[in-house]
Amino acid sequence: MTTYTQPDLNGQFGQFGGRFVPETLMQSVIDLEQAYRDAKEDPDFQKELNHYLKDYVGRETPLYYAENLTKKIGGSKIYLKREDLNHTGAHKINNTIGQALLAVKMGKRKIVAETGAGQHGVATATVCALLNLECVIFMGKEDIRRQELNVFRMELLGAKVESVSQGSGTLKDAVNEAMRYWVANVEDTHYIIGSVLGPHPFPEMVRDFQSVIGTETKKQIIEKEGRLPDEIIACIGGGSNAIGMFYPFINESDVKLTGVEAAGSGVHTNKHAATLTAGEVGILHGSMMYLLQNEDGQIQEAHSISAGLDYPGVGPEHSYLHEIKRVKYESITDDEALEALQLLSKTEGIIPALESAHAVSEAVKKAKNGSAEDIIVICLSGRGDKDVNTVKAALEDEK
Amino acid sequence: MGKTDIKHAIEQINEQGSKAFVPYIMAGDPSIEELKDQLIFLQESGATVIELGIPFSDPAADGPVIQEAGKRALKNGASLHKVLEALTSLKDVLTVPIVLMTYINPMYKYGLNKVFTDIEQAGVSGLIIPDLPYEQNSLISQYISQTDLALIQLVTLTSPESRIKTLAEASEGFLYAVSVTGTTGERANISDKLENFIKRLKNYSSVPVLAGFGISTPEQVKEISSFSDGVIVGSKIVDLQFKKQQKDIEKLIHAAVK
């Protein structure tokens, strides 16, 4: 294939993406794009970012050969990219540290963000504490109830957590409310979006900050195996860990890229978050992308046992990669993810986040059909400590 | 009905020494059946143009009052299809130009190749699409250009001068000056910058300049319409409509329209 150069100058990935925001925000996103372009070319900014990634976040993260799991499955060799070992326990901080440094560079010392399960909220509150920025996090009322401990963590870090009772009180409503807050406070506030979503330049910028995952993986797998992997698998909600892992491999046409959506109770039920598998093209939160919506264009609720995948849209670049068929998108149910979580815990002593367990489950399916010469890399996007209550409740339910 | 009807309705009222008053209501709140009476009441009370909201599940540009109204409308089954059906049946009784305020996704889902002609055939004169900024107009331009619908641009206090000029020149029907930095909803104080802002807009715009967002009292209506061609009142009208305080709606209208 020809060299991949998305997005175009209008912030579009094919027909997807763009800037569908109220006029009040337009100048701000235009200014943000310019500031981001400048930062990308600024060696001092890059030096500072790399310093924090190394000494604060703890990069690079290991690429670990999961020998026990590999032997247990008896097929392809399985590697884990250990994003769970980052500070705060997931890949989210790769993006929040980058955007927070950019906000400081732009002279904005107030940060607003949305969060679903609280992982992005914690990662945002963390970097705000580090850089002494004021921080407001919007979180759905229902999510606050389910993730009490993460709310406390954010508050401990000095953030103000605002409960969102509008709509269904979940992630998409928290995004709406964070956008409303940004509209009203745009002159001194930066919005740190948590995934490859939102108006241009967010999907591109978040991808670039997360690309450290794929860049390290490429170097590490060559060191260990002397070649690129056959397949890379990552879970997808909005899609930031997946795009960060995939992007450095997009031009490597021999590497199969697989994104895993949450099938919840099953894609044929009305309780899932498999946007690319079962959604339609539409426009939400500043971007054209695949969405779960009804026949009148009203956005539907997504469902997944994993709060981080529980979003009714999927990043515009994933929508595009789906359309050009460069990435294959599969889906894994709640039950399959729970099973994979237990398998990895028992074989490797690694409790993955429920989100990442979706990628593990898909990898197990693929590895079974592979041979010892095949190499699969899983993006283990986060650790599972935050999910133990959910897992415990789900397993007790099964009994 | 079309672009020129909106402009003419406003200019005509201005020539009579009054200012334009554009009330906003949410279609389908509380039900589609009541839409007819609501529109006729506003028409008879002297509304210059009526802005009719289409409910959307994720109204990121709206404040709490309009969010709640949208929720009630959706709960009662309102949709773009049903609103257009209702408006079609009211074509003979409505003389006031109607402007639809809708987020882009319900129109996209309806089908861009037919939504504009259907909207026009329902008797609507113009459109306000809060999440379709000027740069994204290319998404709809080839379709909307086949109709006489006005595409009304919003311009805000955060827009720099060059942008203000572009938007003011591009707007059809009227130019919507957003009077506060934020979402729709009532405010105690309207920015002092507003008067100066409106004056700058009037230099660039070939259509009337109306101010909206945050206007909620007859005093504010009087004050802001003294330096603009008229006002748009949303949340307050929605709230009064919900509480069935028709007298207070009339008072607001009459603060602009004599």
TrEMBL record, chain A:
<dbReference type="InterPro" id="IPR006654">
    <property type="entry name" value="Trp_synth_beta"/>
</dbReference>
<keyword id="KW-0822">Tryptophan biosynthesis</keyword>
<dbReference type="InterPro" id="IPR006653">
    <property type="entry name" value="Trp_synth_b_CS"/>
</dbReference>
<protein>
    <recommendedName>
        <fullName>Tryptophan synthase beta chain</fullName>
        <ecNumber>4.2.1.20</ecNumber>
    </recommendedName>
</protein>
<dbReference type="GO" id="GO:0004834">
    <property type="term" value="F:tryptophan synthase activity"/>
</dbReference>
<dbReference type="InterPro" id="IPR036052">
    <property type="entry name" value="TrpB-like_PALP_sf"/>
</dbReference>
<keyword id="KW-0663">Pyridoxal phosphate</keyword>
<comment type="pathway">
    <text>Amino-acid biosynthesis; L-tryptophan biosynthesis; L-tryptophan from chorismate: step 5/5.</text>
</comment>
<keyword id="KW-0028">Amino-acid biosynthesis</keyword>
<keyword id="KW-0456">Lyase</keyword>
<comment type="similarity">
    <text>Belongs to the TrpB family.</text>
</comment>
<comment type="function">
    <text>The beta subunit is responsible for the synthesis of L-tryptophan from indole and L-serine.</text>
</comment>
<dbReference type="GO" id="GO:0005737">
    <property type="term" value="C:cytoplasm"/>
</dbReference>
<dbReference type="Pfam" id="PF00291">
    <property type="entry name" value="PALP"/>
</dbReference>
<feature type="modified residue" description="N6-(pyridoxal phosphate)lysine">
    <location>
        <position position="92"/>
    </location>
</feature>
<feature type="domain" description="Tryptophan synthase beta chain-like PALP">
    <location>
        <begin position="58"/>
        <end position="382"/>
    </location>
</feature>
<dbReference type="InterPro" id="IPR001926">
    <property type="entry name" value="TrpB-like_PALP"/>
</dbReference>
<keyword id="KW-0057">Aromatic amino acid biosynthesis</keyword>
<dbReference type="InterPro" id="IPR023026">
    <property type="entry name" value="Trp_synth_beta/beta-like"/>
</dbReference>
<comment type="subunit">
    <text>Tetramer of two alpha and two beta chains.</text>
</comment>
TrEMBL record, chain B:
<feature type="active site" description="Proton acceptor">
    <location>
        <position position="62"/>
    </location>
</feature>
<dbReference type="GO" id="GO:0004834">
    <property type="term" value="F:tryptophan synthase activity"/>
</dbReference>
<protein>
    <recommendedName>
        <fullName>Tryptophan synthase alpha chain</fullName>
        <ecNumber>4.2.1.20</ecNumber>
    </recommendedName>
</protein>
<keyword id="KW-0456">Lyase</keyword>
<comment type="function">
    <text>The alpha subunit is responsible for the aldol cleavage of indoleglycerol phosphate to indole and glyceraldehyde 3-phosphate.</text>
</comment>
<comment type="pathway">
    <text>Amino-acid biosynthesis; L-tryptophan biosynthesis; L-tryptophan from chorismate: step 5/5.</text>
</comment>
<dbReference type="Pfam" id="PF00290">
    <property type="entry name" value="Trp_syntA"/>
</dbReference>
<comment type="similarity">
    <text>Belongs to the TrpA family.</text>
</comment>
<keyword id="KW-0028">Amino-acid biosynthesis</keyword>
<comment type="subunit">
    <text>Tetramer of two alpha and two beta chains.</text>
</comment>
<keyword id="KW-0822">Tryptophan biosynthesis</keyword>
<dbReference type="InterPro" id="IPR013785">
    <property type="entry name" value="Aldolase_TIM"/>
</dbReference>
<dbReference type="InterPro" id="IPR011060">
    <property type="entry name" value="RibuloseP-bd_barrel"/>
</dbReference>
<keyword id="KW-0057">Aromatic amino acid biosynthesis</keyword>
<dbReference type="GO" id="GO:0005829">
    <property type="term" value="C:cytosol"/>
</dbReference>
<feature type="active site" description="Proton acceptor">
    <location>
        <position position="51"/>
    </location>
</feature>
<dbReference type="InterPro" id="IPR002028">
    <property type="entry name" value="Trp_synthase_suA"/>
</dbReference>
